[in-house]
Write a structure and sequence with these properties.
43% of the residues lie in helices and 23% in strands. It has helices spanning 7-19, 22-29, 33-47, 63-87, 101-118, 131-139, 192-203, 217-225, 270-282, and strands at 52-55, 58-61, 92-99, 121-128, 145-151, 162-171, 182-186, 208-213, 231-234, 242-244, 256-263.
Length: 286
């Protein structure tokens, strides 16, 4: 019997494999969790192989699932390239794209991968830096487009593509939040996480000192992993080996931030419009 691999099934299978959680994958593809599970069962029945193992923490691929995923990526890429070329929608050229460090781990892989599948001839140059530095680069036309953060209570709320709560973050099992004075690892002084942390602590008269200040998210998280300080991140950006410090710690509640996209205004090319549209459609689902 000839087996037909439906492109939509393969695409949804790839999304599940990427996010590792069926409920999150269902949100991304716009289906119910039950419908998505049924699709995978159909795919497994057609191939007569178990592709995924479900557990309390999510899903993991079997050996057969890993093999299918490699084929799925190639098939989806070839399919999308063919459609783009034949429809005249394929793009080419280069574009400079900025993204805050703390969003890079979560947002960049799917954003860049999906765009590359559709437009393989486009070179995307990526620059990671805190939002104030990205805004400076946009203003000086050193960047074409960037994902940026805004204060949640701002007149720019209509520009938000999603909202994220800011959270206190520490090493799992650490009681660094009990230190007196509280030791903080924060980004540059003009960033939203730095301002949120210091402002809320001053309001509750909690003593603190800046143990580490840098625009590098890897440096901040390294200090937190030592157990010598805590930091502030958006909830999405919390690495799996660190934890959100609970409200019972006594730390003050932090505000949220809005996430949007801005362009430099230097050019208005078909490529820039296409990349901006891609970000606007995909970012709210990640």
């Amino acid at each position: 019997m000839r087996i037909h691999l439906d492109i939509s099934l393969l695409r949804n299978f790839a999304v599940i494999a990427e996010v590792g959680v069926m409920s999150r994958a269902a949100e991304q593809v716009g289906r119910t969790q039950a419908a998505l599970s049924q699709q995978i069962k159909k795919l497994e029945a057609e191939l007569e192989q178990t592709l995924m193992l479900r557990n309390a923490h999510g899903v993991t691929l079997t050996i057969h699932g890993e093999r299918l995923l490699a084929h799925a990526y190639r098939i989806i890429r070839a399919h999308d390239e063919a459609l783009a070329e034949l429809s005249g929608d394929t793009l080419s050229g280069s574009i400079s794209f900025g993204c805050p460090d703390d969003y890079a781990r979560v947002f960049l892989p799917p954003l860049l991968r999906e765009f590359a599948r559709l437009h393989p001839q486009v070179l995307v140059e990526v620059i990671c830096a805190p939002t104030p530095r990205l805004l400076e680069k946009l203003e000086s036309h050193a960047l074409d487009i960037a994902i940026v953060s805004f204060p949640d209570k701002t007149e720019q709320q209509n520009e938000f593509l999603r909202r994220e709560p800011l959270v206190w973050v520490g090493l799992k099992g650490s009681d660094a939040y009990n230190m007196e004075p509280l030791r903080l690892a924060l980004s540059d002084v003009d960033t939203l996480d730095h301002q949120a942390a210091t402002t809320t602590l001053k309001k509750v008269h909690r003593d603190y000192r800046i143990a580490y200040a840098s625009g590098s998210i890897s440096g901040l998280t390294a200090v937190v992993r030592s157990g010598q300080a805590i930091t502030v991140l958006t909830q999405t950006a919390v690495p799996p080996d660190l934890e959100i410090i609970p409200e019972s710690s006594g730390l003050p509640e932090l505000p949220g931030v809005g996430i949007g996209v801005k362009t430099s205004g230097r050019i208005s090319s078909r490529l820039l419009k296409g990349f901006e549209s891609h970000i606007r459609s995909l970012l709210p689902t990640l």
